Amino acid sequence: MYFKDDVEFGNYSRKLNTGQIVESGYYIEGKKEKTWFLRNDDNSSETTNYKNDKKNGECILRDSNNSIIVVGSYWNDMKSGPWKIINKDSSYLVMKFQFDKSISNSFYDKKNNLIYKEYFENGKIRKSDYFQNGKLQKSQLINPSFSGYTIY
User: Fold this and answer.
1) Which of 27, 70, 84, 115 is most deeply packed, by most CB within 10 A?
2) Between residues 103 and 146, which one has the greater pLDDT?
């Protein structure tokens, strides 16, 4: 990395005394660009893409064994689109984001059964479905005009 008029340019890396890299990336005119890597104190890590000093593009989190535990995307520093969160038992959660707000969740158990939920803008559940072996078992649609459930 070099400086021009006190502004960072080029490759950047920060290392421990042991030589292990704990942060690396690239600066253009003092702003983070391209892919950045960050290693946390617990040896987990994060790889995130940046554009114009904002998170943009894919983000991958890994545990201390280097197994992927979260995959998602950012747009203009906000979570966007599907984020997959993987549990140790192989179950996983897919959260869909729009402008940094979760708009739906899909939980898959280790047998690949699905619990799906959609949300109103206020965060309350709008719809809930349960699938077993790929077939809809139960569905609930919540009507915003009253506090009850409509089951179909």
Assistant:
1) 27
2) 103
Structure confidence by residue, pLDDT tens digits, 45-71: 999 999 999 999 999 999 999 999 999
Query: Is 104 in contact with 96 (CB distance < 8 Å)?
Result: yes
Compute the distance between CA of residue 1 and CA of residue 98 in angstroms, rounded to an integer: 35
Q: Cα 27–44–104 angle (5° rounding)? A: 90
Q: What angle do CA 57, 78, 74 make, to 5 degrees?
A: 15
Q: Is 79 exposed, middle or buried (0-12, 13-18, 19+ CB in 10 A)?
A: buried
SS3 category, 103: strand
Percentage of the chain beyond pLDDT 70 is 93
Q: Give the residue from 84, 81, 87, 86 showing the smallest Cα distance to 103.
A: 81
Cβ atoms 59, 40 nearer than 8 A: no
Closest by CA to 110, choosing from 130, 129, 92, 128, is: 92
